[in-house]
Specification:
By secondary structure, this protein is of the alpha/beta class. It has 21 helices and ten strands.
Length: 458
Amino acid sequence: MDFNSVLKVIEDAAYRCTECGICTHRCVVLDTEIPLTIGQICKHVMWRDPDDPSTSFLSEGKLNAPEEEFFEHVRKVLHTTRPDILFAIRRCCMCGFCTIYCPVDIDARAAYTALRALMYEADVINKRDFRLTKIDEPWHLFSAYRAINGISYLDMPRLLTAEEREEQEAQDGESKENTKPEYLFFPGCTLASYAPELTREVFDWLNEHGYPSIITEDCCGSPLKSAGNYRDLTTFKDSLRDRMISQGIKKIVFVCPGCEEELKEAIHSDDEFELIPLPRLLVEQGVTISSDQVAQSLKASPDQEDKNQAAQVCVFDSCHDRDQRYGACIRELFKENEIKEMRYRGKNAQCCWASGSTSLVDPDIGPKRAQELFDEGLTVANLQVNNCPTCAYTMASHALSHPELQDVAEKSVNGLGFSQLNYLELVFENKFDWDKVFEQLQGMWTGEYGAWAAQELL
């Protein structure tokens, strides 16, 4: 994506929006004291007069004014004239829920991605706010966490950096094509950083069940998109794609739909790589989660002999999984259990609000959403299963900061207790140790490596 493409996306939404208000009433970011639509936001940014399309800064797909003049307009609108629009753009988790039923097919994800990119280019935001998650640099939150806590995958067959690849070829010569594993296991930042033993178990399972794989610690690039840093994001994804091709990767196995959706943008053609949901492979291999496994997973669960009814399961669908590539398979994993459905699922799945770096401007919006998920899950089922490790992180963070949520047996369905877990924690019976993770995250800044972490990351 180049800068003109960014502007065209915003301009297109401005022109097409009919101000019907459907998006407004579907999102707390838009449905505020001064209601907004996606179109209104884009018109204020792209047009000199938000009520007059003839005043657009774009003509025939290109700026019709000096770039700095346009940037000054954007800064004036967002900082002075309509700061509520800036707040809306920054609060958006970029899940696209608001425009699922847009009558003119505006894609909120694309529009907000472009708006974030424009803000980044026009210096509307403080770019240092996103230094912690500059995942294209050697040191960022996840790589530093792994280094400080001795988490490494260097002993495993893995996706090499360009420099490592050159060094290997210089030493050993070109590898034979038929010795290259064709699968790449893509665990994502959260799983690879916060559950290394579980990550290794999944990797071993893949190789033991006919999916010869290598692993990568790479991020999918989502934090760069949240920042609006589309230039570095494009470079990062192109490099990742080139590395996969150079090592003969044909198929990529994803733990969560968010990573898959993000990396789709790096692929140049449909036949370049096959993108595979891990839950699909688990189902194909006949993996199921028994009712006994579910019962043993419940917090505040009474002894098995005291149970007169089976525990119930509900699935929290990721906002990146509205096509149910993951959710349908996860439900199949739990087919031996009674499955209850949540209000927002499938096509209408809502975000956990971990995406978009929204906490930088509204630290309360994420915890509020996490509480809503907890409350609904508690009234629907005994086990709320999520398909994204980052969703699991969000829910765990909220639960650990609210001890009162731990004692829920009496309030839960059938009085059997309630837990929120990622599907992998059930499949491999190996849970995230969130108490340890959050203690280590805090220790990054106060412990032995605190000064180094602050210097490198802040």
